[in-house]
């Protein structure tokens, strides 16, 4: 885990059918209505239980030497990132966001592409919500569109991809109930084909043991 400076982020039950009166209703229906009138329920019993959430992170393994190594690799410039120290609940300063070190291995670079925040905005998520695979999906989308000279469209991204979340649950301190961890649990996956909208499943082919699916050399 590391902190980065955020440069570019931005019906009435008594009504009877027409032509009928309330007195003409079958006795069983009247009896049922009278029985229901005696039923009472607390509002809290009708609502889904509120999920317990936590911002508890694992202890960070990022050190200043690792930051310096990433600078030498060209992932970001000096002074852009800092290690969080002993924090297990991040306390970012003004203008900072939380990222994980493996994000840089999967394609994240700073300064960040100004279109990334726009792609995330419709899903109401931040960088720390993602697994590395989420960064891979973003990087692939941007790479493919720009490779073929297209225009990056937020609508197109939302049409092709959906947010997939698998929250992890942990016990916090002496709590007896589980809480959902609010980091590293989201990724993007291709939307399923939809005949009604004409949507086809579009994704980059996966390679296994240096062999790509299908005859990819055919062009």
Topology summary:
Elements: E1 2-5, H1 27-36, H2 43-46, E2 53-54, H3 64-72, E3 81-82, E4 96-99, H4 102-105, H5 116-120, H6 132-147, H7 154-160, E5 161-165, E6 169-170, E7 179-181, E8 186-190, E9 207-208, E10 211-212
Parallel strand pairs: 2-7
Antiparallel strand pairs: 1-3, 1-4, 5-8, 6-7, 9-10
What descriptors fit this protein?
10 strands, single chain, 219 residues, alpha+beta, disordered C terminus, flat
| Share in β-strands | 5-15%
What is the C-alpha radius of gyration, as a whole number of Å? 26 Å
Kindly report the oligomeric state of this protein. single chain
Domain count: 1
E-strand count: 10
> SSE order, as H and E?
EHHEHEEHHHHEEEEEE
- Derived structural class: alpha+beta
Number of helices: 7
End-to-end distance, in Å? Answer: 42 Å
Strand order of the largest sheet: 3-1-4
Low-pLDDT stretches = 6-24, 215-219
Shape: flat
**Average pLDDT reading:** 77
Largest β sheet strand count, sense and barrel closure: 3 strands, antiparallel
Residue share in helix? 25-40%
Detailed description of the structure:
This protein is an alpha+beta fold and 219 residues long. It has one domain (2-6, 50-205). 25% of the residues lie in helices and 14% in strands. The chain is built from 7 helices and 10 strands. A 3-stranded antiparallel β-sheet has the order 3-1-4, with no helix packed on it. Strands 2-7-6 form a 3-stranded mixed β-sheet, with no helix packed on it. A hairpin with an 8-residue loop joins strand 6 and strand 7 (179-181). The protein is flat, with a radius of gyration of 26 Å.
């Amino acid at each position: 885990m590391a902190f980065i400076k955020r440069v570019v982020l931005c019906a009435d039950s008594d009504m009877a059918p027409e032509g009928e009166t309330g007195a003409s209703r079958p006795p069983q229906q009247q009896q049922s209505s009278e029985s229901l009138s005696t039923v009472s329920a607390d509002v809290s019993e009708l609502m889904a239980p509120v999920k317990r959430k936590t911002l508890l992170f694992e202890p960070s393994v990022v050190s200043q030497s690792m930051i310096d190594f990433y600078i030498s690799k060209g992932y970001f410039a000096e002074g852009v990132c800092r290690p969080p120290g002993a924090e297990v609940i991040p306390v970012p300063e003004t203008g900072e966001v939380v990222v994980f070190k493996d994000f840089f291995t999967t394609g994240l670079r700073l300064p960040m592409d100004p279109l990334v925040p726009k792609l995330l905005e419709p899903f109401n998520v931040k960088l720390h919500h993602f697994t590395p695979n989420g960064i891979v999906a973003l990087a692939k989308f941007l790479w493919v569109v720009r490779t073929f000279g297209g225009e990056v469209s937020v609508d197109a991204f939302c049409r092709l991809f959906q947010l997939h979340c698998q929250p992890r649950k942990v016990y916090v301190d002496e709590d007896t109930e589980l809480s959902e961890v609010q980091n590293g649990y989201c990724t993007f996956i291709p939307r399923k084909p939809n005949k009604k909208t004409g949507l086809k499943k579009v994704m980059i082919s996966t390679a296994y043991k240096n062999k790509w699916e299908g005859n990819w050399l055919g062009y």
